[in-house]
Specification:
- The chain is of the alpha+beta class.
- It has two domains: 159 residues, Hypothetical protein yfbM fold (3-Layer(aba) Sandwich); 35 residues, no CATH class.
- Helix content is 40%, strand content 16%.
- It contains eight helices and seven strands; from the N terminus they run E-H-H-E-H-E-E-H-E-E-H-H-H-H-E.
- The strands form two sheets. Strands 4-1-7-6-5 form a five-stranded antiparallel beta sheet. A two-stranded antiparallel ribbon has the order 2-3.
- The N and C termini lie close together (10 Å).
């Protein structure tokens, strides 16, 4: 499965809604919850299961709703960093999990949202923090990021996904993977800053 990074921009008013109503956060991050359906097993196995309290269940995607808890992201509202989030953090901070703000905003800083669940980290960057991050990213280019790219150190620090950084650039292009992701990140944050939007950062 792996861990993936996602950024989604919201207006300050919608950011306040997410802060104050925990029900909205899951729908905002992952869409409408799936439907759990009891599955009837055929044949003898199904007959025997009906004699026990054991239930076999499966999930199905929720059907489209005219009144969802939170609508899906519109074009330009969401950025999927895939598995590049940790490598980008390293390029921006030189660390695995620290660094000074605003460079560290992919992993630290901002306000934590929702419950403290181990497999989902969601944080809110307010508009002032988004502007600071945009200003930090704006002057960075491919040459500087290439200088910071250090496969040996990234592997030693356990930068996720650890196995890819030493792969040959000619075939797997791990550096190019990060540079492309950085361009998307810089443009996305710049657009959010111009609109005076907040950003929710989710690692899950």
């Amino acid at each position: 499965m792996g861990m993936y990074g996602t950024l989604r921009r919201v207006s300050p008013a919608d950011a306040e809604r997410l802060r104050t109503d925990p029900r909205l956060l899951e729908a905002f991050l992952f869409g409408e919850p799936p439907i759990v359906v009891e599955e009837r097993m055929p044949g003898v196995l199904g007959f025997l299961l009906r004699l026990t309290p054991i239930k076999v269940q499966r999930t199905e995607p929720a059907p489209p709703s005219d009144d969802p808890l939170w609508p899906p992201p519109a074009s330009g509202e969401q950025l999927d960093l895939d598995k590049a989030w940790h490598g980008l953090h390293f390029l921006l901070t030189g660390t695995a999990d620290g660094g000074a703000e605003p460079a560290s905003f992919l992993l630290t800083g901002g306000e934590e949202l929702g419950d403290d669940e181990e497999d989902v980290q969601a944080r809110l960057l307010r508009p002032a923090q988004v502007r600071a991050l945009a200003e930090h990213l704006a002057p960075l280019g491919a040459d500087e990021l290439t200088r910071r790219f250090d496969p040996e150190r990234m592997t030693k620090l356990g930068i996720y996904p650890t196995a890819i950084w030493k792969r040959p650039e000619e075939t797997d292009a791990p550096r190019g993977f990060l540079l492309d992701a950085f361009t998307g990140l810089r443009d996305f944050v710049a657009d959010a800053a111009r609109e005076d939007h907040a950003i929710v950062v989710c690692i899950s």
